[in-house]
Design goal:
By secondary structure, this protein is an alpha+beta fold. 57% of the residues lie in helices and 10% in strands. It has helices spanning 3-11, 18-30, 36-43, 50-77, 83-91, 100-114, 124-138, 156-162, 167-180, 218-227, 242-259, 263-274, and strands at residues 142-143, 164-165, 185-190, 193-200, 203-208, 214-216. Strands 3-4-5-6 form a 4-stranded antiparallel β-sheet. The longest helix has 28 residues, at 50-77.
């Protein structure tokens, strides 16, 4: 449909005949997200009344929400489930104009900050110390302890901009750089805390990225679980999948919006995580 026809339909969204409004809105929605630029342009037109602006806002949001959900389903069904792509899809829920190319470029820049200092003959613990030094001392990444439950802690673009995040978002940054360096580092789903593990042959240790890359061992996990009165489970010690990481990111977002009393966003994300099951 041509742009003038769509603009004409927009003007009918405040028609006095409710049947006309419903028919027009249904037809516009059937055109799909490709009309978003036209809707955004018309929304910015100051001559529009508040009722039309509200309807356009809702329509744009619904188009963007559906696009995010469909990307997430396709990401899962593709099989390879690239972690950065998954984090980008989650970020587009709030930042629909954010590009995957920008995310990859920003992450590559972080990698090139670490890469020159890594030597293959270094012991793994020394390699981890180098990554810790670059990320936490040089680049000033760190825990957002003051606003731990803020939704922005789960959006990778905000984390890269502010250098502050929650355990899982900081772990994603750390793990991606380490894996690009060829290091066997993976995520671990601990209760109330997401950490990383270095696992190769008989060597396995754990990394608390939320605590500036503190290195610890299995006994520490045993003690942590005992403090929580939880029975040890293999899932608390071994690597998890990228799908599990994205699920946990979405759960964190659901909790963030729930604590903020934002039931609408909470319900949308609950539906989104259900689509991955």
């Amino acid at each position: 449909m041509e742009e003038p026809a769509i603009k004409a339909m927009i003007q009918l969204l405040d028609d006095s005949d409710q049947e006309v409004v419903e028919m027009v809105e249904a037809q516009m929605r059937s055109l799909g997200p490709q009309i978003i630029p036209i809707l955004e342009n018309e929304w910015e037109n100051s001559s529009l009344n508040p009722l039309i602006q509200s309807k356009l806002e809702n329509m744009i949001h619904d188009f963007q929400l559906d696009s995010t959900k469909q990307r997430l389903i396709q990401w899962k069904e593709s099989g390879h489930m690239d972690l950065l792509e998954g984090m980008w899809i989650v970020a587009t829920y709030r930042f629909p104009d954010y590009s995957l190319a920008q995310l990859r470029a920003d992450m590559d820049q972080l990698y090139f900050e670490v890469w020159p200092q890594i030597r293959e003959n270094l012991h793994p613990m020394d390699q981890l110390k180098i990554i810790n030094g670059v990320l936490f001392d040089q680049l000033k990444f760190g825990a957002n302890s003051k606003n731990f439950h803020a939704a922005n802690n789960s959006f990778i673009n905000v984390v890269l901009e502010t250098r502050k995040g929650n355990p899982i978002s900081l772990c994603v940054v750390y793990m991606w750089i380490a894996q690009k360096l060829g290091m066997p580092i993976f995520g671990v789903n601990l209760p109330n805390l997401f950490v990383l593990t270095y696992k190769k042959d008989d060597l396995q240790c754990y990394i608390n990225v939320f605590n500036k890359g503190l290195i610890f061992n299995k006994v520490d996990i045993d003690n942590y679980l005992a403090q929580l009165n939880l029975t040890p489970n293999e899932v608390y010690y071994q690597p998890c999948s990228n799908l599990e990481i994205i699920r946990r990111v979405l759960r964190n977002l659901i909790m963030a919006f729930e604590k903020a009393g934002d039931d609408s966003h909470r319900d949308e994300l609950t539906d989104m995580i259900d689509s991955l099951d």
